[in-house]
Amino acid sequence: MADKPAIGIEIRKLYKIFGPNAAEMVARVENGMTKTELNEKHGHVLGLRDINISMPAGGIQVIMGLSGSGKSTLIRHINRLIDPTSGEVVVGGEDVVKMNPDQLREFRRHQTAMVFQKFALLPHRNVLENTVYGLEVQGVDRASQVKSATMWLERVGLKGFEKKYPNQLSGGMQQRVGLARALANDAPILLMDEAFSALDPLIRVDMQTILLDLQKDIRKTIVFITHDLDEALRLGDRIAILRDGNMVQQGTGQDIVMNPADGYIQSFVEHVNRGKVIRVSTVMKQGGAGEGLASIASDALLDDAARQLIASNATHLQVTDAAGRPVGTVDMAAITRGIFPAGGGQI
Amino acid sequence: MDWLTKFPTMETATLRDLRKAIDDSFRSFTRAWGDTFEWFFEPLRIFLIQAERLMLNTPWPIVLAVIGLIAWFASRSWKITGFAVVALMVIGWFGMWDDTMRTISMIFVCTVVAIAVGIPIGIVMARSNRVQAVVNPILDVMQTMPSFVYLIPVVMLLGIGRVPGVIAVVIYAIPPMIRLTNLGIRMVDKDVLEAADAFGSSSWQKLKNVQMPLALPTIMAGINQTIMMALAMVVIAAMIGVQGLGQPVLQAINNQYFSIGLFNGFAIVCIAIIFDRVSQAYGRRLQKHLEIVHG
Ligand SMILES: Nc1ncnc2c1ncn2[C@@H]1O[C@H](COP(=O)(O)OP(=O)(O)OP(=O)(O)O)[C@@H](O)[C@H]1O
Ligand SMILES: [Mg+2]
User: Fold this and answer.
1) Which end of chain A is more exposed for a tag (fewer CB within 10 A), N or C?
2) ipTM more than 0.90?
3) Which residue's CA lies nearest to atom 22 of ligand 1?
4) How far is the CA of A325 from the centre of ligand 2 (A)?
5) Most confident of A3-17, A223-237, B142-156
6) Residue A250 is assigned to a structural domain of this protein
């Protein structure tokens, strides 16, 4: 399936300003003018300011932020649906910003695929015809189009719905078509702009599970946008947080929950269930491996550790690394401190 | 106080010279280019004659059956199909079959020409705001200029006959075709267009796979309006030699035959209703997949 090796995305010094004289405004923004000032004094909208981010190949990079923070603008720079005002977007060693229209079209056809918040299916085409769209545009022969589309529709659980039209499906099913359409493209990069935001909470969790299961096989570089922290923590190998066009923090979910960079992020992470984010390795006591104790992997979540500790009826658990070697121990007090930090917002 | 009660005008002589200059230059243009225009429109003439011949030489039961079938496949409605067949039979019984066939073939040719010319113009207009800004006022003039006015140059160029008639009808009937093609393409959901872009569609692929299919119901509304407007021109076209239901109406006006006028007028109305209901029903069927029936 994922024949092509995953490729990373490198964004450097990216600025986006909306307005007629965007290029002239970059210097002002570089000198620290805020979004509000720029809008009031010069009538330009600051989309993104000095974004630098490196998205590793084969991982899920989540981009988070409130409405209007520039998430959609950022993700659209990766396949250049939006042209930057300045900066570089290097994908697999090539700068997307410098591509000519033909190169860009080829790039979009073969290197990227996208899933949209409002699904953006073709209403006059049935599910199968929607799913083959990317391959059709590439000029792949019809038999391979249908074969690939049928396979992906089955993977997302839509076998038997090939002949239905989008308006005959529920939102969750429509988005599965959107996902199958993107995956059928067999591109190493998958861009998902609030792909699950329009769905009911339960269906949303379903879709997250489908995506995580698929990712075990496909190992694509996924850029996933959301304004929901739980979704971000569940999916993201790495998370970047935007605010008013600025990148305010990057790191793993655990980094962000443990060390929020400022009050804005603090307010985001306040109500998160830390037991489902923080891993045993963060709170364990190094060394002093206890013989005969039940063991737990160092990358297990605190919730699971607590459960196991209760089940094993002991005071400590032995923590083991990926190779199974003992690296430390953990007890209920440490776990509890991890879940309920001193001075934290939890009740 | 003469200048207050009488609107100041330019010298009568100047005005006369101006008119003469325009008329003369157009006349010499006609003399120089008339043959070229005739040559250019020769294919249209052949198309017209062939269409008319086909309608007149085919045995009437076959024509009736074909029209019935088209009505059925386009509308899938027994009511509309039944009306079409019965109305045509009554028209035939009243002795207007041949004229009706001539009119239908003329309307058919005009519609084909309007589609062939109008859709490409509409597409170009939808892609460029500048083209739209130029074409829109031209369409306004075409729609408001009394049709007799542009009959004059058309007749001067091409004489009396079918071809100038069809051209006059197309000029009158094409604006909605162009406008609604433009509108239909511009109204296409920009999210869907963005998706097409994201998958690397070329502009031709976007037009073919996304814009035209999604604009089709609007374009169908344009075709419907074009047909209706073409039918409204039947009598005027008869004045410059287009045969069909229009000519008896003209004779009826000249000789004050109320009944002839009434019968032919009703025949035109019936054809209009048939075309209208069939094309609208077809347009509605096209739209079925665009309606949201599920969250
Ligand atoms: N074409 C445009 N012209 C002017 N301003 C724009 C344009 N597109 C986006 N913006 C502005 O850029 C900012 C970021 O918009 P963006 O759509 O990227 O936000 P977002 O984080 O995706 O928000 P949401 O969660 O609502 O989708 C907003 O202030 C928006 O008003
Ligand atoms: Mg957005």
Assistant:
1) C
2) no
3) A72
4) 45
5) A223-237
6) yes
Distances in Å between the Cα of B186 and the Cα atoms of B204, B208, B221 are 16, 14, 15
Contacts of A139 (CB under 8 A, 6+ apart): none
Kindly report the CATH number assigned to the domain that includes residue B162. 1.10.3720.10
* Smallest CA–CA distance from A108 into chain B, residue: B200
Count other C-beta atoms under 10 Å from residue B146's C-beta. Answer: 9
Select from A269, A297, A313 the last residue of a domain: A269
Same domain, A201 and A68: yes
Q: Which pLDDT does position B293 carry in this prediction?
A: 54
**C-alpha span between B258 and A195 (Å, rounded):** 69
Q: Domain range spanning residue A207? A: 9-111+187-269
Q: How big is chain B by its Cα radius of gyration, in Å? A: 23
Residue A83 sits in the same domain as residue A226 = yes
Domain boundary among A252, A269, A286: A269
User: For the residues B196-223, what does the mean pLDDT come to?
Assistant: 94
Q: Examine the domain organization and report whether A200 and A265 are in the same domain.
A: yes
Amino acid of residue B101: M
Report if residue A181 sits inside a domain.
no
> Tens digits of per-residue pLDDT, A145-170?
999 999 999 999 999 999 999 999 99
- What are the residue ranges of helices labelled H in chain A? 22-30, 35-42, 71-78, 101-110, 127-131, 133-138, 142-155, 171-184, 201-218, 229-235, 253-258, 263-269, 280-283, 302-312, 332-339
Taking CB atoms and a 6 Å cutoff, what residues make up the pocket around ligand 1? A 18, 45, 47, 65, 67-73, 227
**Residue A229 sits in a domain of what CATH number?**
3.40.50.300
- Report how far residue A299's alpha carbon sits from residue A230's, in angstroms, rounded to the nearest whole number: 19
Q: pLDDT for A215-236, tens place per residue?
A: 999 899 999 999 888 899 999 9
In this prediction the pTM is 0.85
